[in-house]
Fold these 4 entries.
Entry 1:
Amino acid sequence: MRNLASLLTLIFAISWKICEASVPPRRPDGRIVNGREANEGEFPYQLSLRRLTVHICGASVLDGSWAITAAHCVDGHEKKPQEFTLRLGSVKRSSGGSVMSVRTIYKHPTYDAKDMNFDVALLRTQPGALTQNPNVSPIALPEAGAVIEENQLAVVSGWGYMSSTESVLSSTLKYTTVRTVNQEKCHNDLRYHGGVTDAMFCASARNTDACQGDSGGPLTAQGKLIGIVSWGVGCADPFYPGVYTRLSHPSIRGWVRMLTKL
């Protein structure tokens, strides 16, 4: 009987580990599940980052020459900026607006693909190219060290997958409203998936979220770009909030200012 009990305990432990491992982390990718379609001009800072003409991530306009996205969107290809373009000034993923070439890519110097820490990159275009389109305007950044209040409303937008079960990008920009999550709760909820660092924060809402194809896109609150879609576990999973790069982190904000003067 003792041997049987030990065997059952072992089987349970193995089953638990298999079950736990079967929940895939959304590293690295991010969609807007159950979002609403945006109207033309509603998100003038939103960009579609494209590699070899195919949409891979979102990005945001910082000024006429600079855009910002997630480092994992360009990781491994930063020395080939000619492969990347930005579609701007349109809520359509594959039409409208204009398309600009990327001249230089800068990943945050301490970005770590293993834990997604400091998941941010800057894209430089020809001077003034990003604001030549009348339907485009920059989004402001927060100050270094600015606090993100718990339960703060924020808006995330992108062209990513429309459901967690169908690998179909949205043809029209979608957006949804989420709420920021207490940092300790965020870390505890994701502790089996590496947790979060001070350069990250979480946001969530019932049955809606960012997902694959939304990575690198904007999370805004009170007219400022407070976060970048970074990673998560599944999409719109009620047990796991989405994780965003914290743009007010001093090491991120200072690096952006050093390169862009913004």
Note: Confidence is low (pLDDT under 50) at residues 1-31.
Entry 2:
Amino acid sequence: MKPEKTILINGHKHIQFQHESVSENEMLKRATTFYNMCNKRRSIRDFSEKEIPIEVIENLIKTASTAPSGANKQPWTFCVVKSAEIKHKIRLAAEEEERKSYAERMSDEWLEDLKHLGTDANKPFLETAPYLIIVFKKPYEIDAEGKKHPNYYVNESVGLACGFLISAIHNAGLVTLTHTPSPMRFLEQILKRPSNERAFLVLPVGYPATETFVPDIERKKLNAIMNVY
């Protein structure tokens, strides 16, 4: 094994990147295989209560943590909720906000756009899924002396990490749903998160229920989403 090459850039150590080179045929094969896998992903609202080893969840989150972030600040926290009591509290609070949204906050056009998905203010998946992963973003860090230090491109960074996480969940043979009850400050309160964390996304994780149905919808075709210049 060759010794690792290192250099200094602006006085900071850099290590040589190790790249796996593959043929164009292998490249296309991998790209096609990954697309075909991801194209089977659906947002699932009916979960089985079947248990999942915590080691699987740990590896999913480790995968999410490989996402790029502004200045490598990694401005995220992933809270894993298994407790039935805490999941129940989260469901009650989320449904309260959702009822207000469906009754008062959402426009008529928004509600009309949601009809074909069959959603409403009831969120039983927040209790039936064996795990909830609550993703928090961190606009700033707080050092030992209580001083604030900014993070950069926080929404973009955390959004990328969530994309990695969703792909990892699907790759593991599990299902999830992106749930964003708004506002979400109740999550910070229930989980007693520090003042520099803001709830970003709720991901129930588990197996689908034995009989699960999803909306009969299609993704946009490539020529509607891609432009080559």
Note: The CA atoms of residues 90 and 190 lie 7 Å apart.
Entry 3:
Amino acid sequence: MNHQDVLDRFKEINVTDLFGTKKEVKELPNVIRENETIMYATSGFMENNTWLITCTDKRVLFLDKGMIYGLKQVEIPIEKINSVSHKKGLMFGTVIIHHGSDHMEINQINKATLNPLVEAINNEIENQKNKKDDKPYQSKEFSFSVADEIIKFKKLYDEGIITEGEFQEKKKELLES
């Protein structure tokens, strides 16, 4: 991903406030991983500096590229986020991301970009939960359906409807699929 790809993605997802984060936006392509998608971004105030806050499908990134000290980068993996809370003021808002026993507070987020940021983070949290929930369910469903089929064929064998060879062949076929 290059700088133009980032700008195109920002336009696509309607990123409207990048106040004071021009250097961070230029640095973002070096930080985004190959298999990662930007879901939303905005600027906010943290540790007495303006930061670029970027939600991806894998993590929430906080970037602050200073003139002298280089790049400050903080990231929170989506699966580590417990909850997101926010409050709105007249022009700006605050987002608090709770992760583990800690939290990150980002202030002076443009009121218009506050809800899209929170929604993007919450959507990715939900997506991560759904991915985790889907895997065990699918494997349980698969193993029960295979077991059920074997039981059905065993009954057919016990009742003399199919031969032992036919039962063994079907059982092997089901276990290999």
Note: The chain is about 45% helix and 30% strand.
Entry 4:
Amino acid sequence: MIVRKKGNYYIFIKQHDHGLLSGELAAQMKQTIQPLAKTLFAISHHDWGWERLDQSPLWNEETNEPYSFDDYPMLPKLEAYTDGIAKVEAHDPYAGFLCSKHYASFFTNIDDPVARKFREQEHNRQNKLRPLFTEGEEANIAANFRLLQFCDDLSLALCLNEPGEQTHPWFENGIQYLGERFRWVWEDQEHLHLAPNLFKQSFVIEIPYQIIDGYRRLIGRETHRFTVIV
């Protein structure tokens, strides 16, 4: 779950909804993506494994705060990662490879034994899948991996900030991609653009969310609706 604190309430955004938004952003890119369908599926479904966990959000009993994706306990998180990658791989091996590469990259410099085992597991998966790809698919792995990471960050920047704001420390200095730094720029609370622009046309995005109070009660379900302008 992606969690924002807002006054006495929490905004919950499901990880898979954030992933689907990542895929929408990728689909609107001006650049050529090859293979298109497989890469978009990977980007859209990279957080598929969180679906089960997000059905029952976990709370930290010591702080009485909900766990977000970044501080979620390691073991169940890695189990969700593994399950999600396997589901994507079952749909398409190339998409599964990209998701495996994405998640393994989280633990490049982490020596935790559980994380190291996960990283090795995913490297083995990648070595098993790689011989299955065409020359064109192989040639585009690096570019499509960078695109997945970039669209993940673009979507997270929208989910972790309040509409009209860009203050979250992860993204306040922009997002690095292809040697440039990109920023979301808000015109108002419903209209924004990416600077520099990478999109082929203006489009509408929606982010469903839940409102939860400090007693862990669901107060309501609403949707942020924005227009990305070019």
Note: The chain has one domain: 2-228.
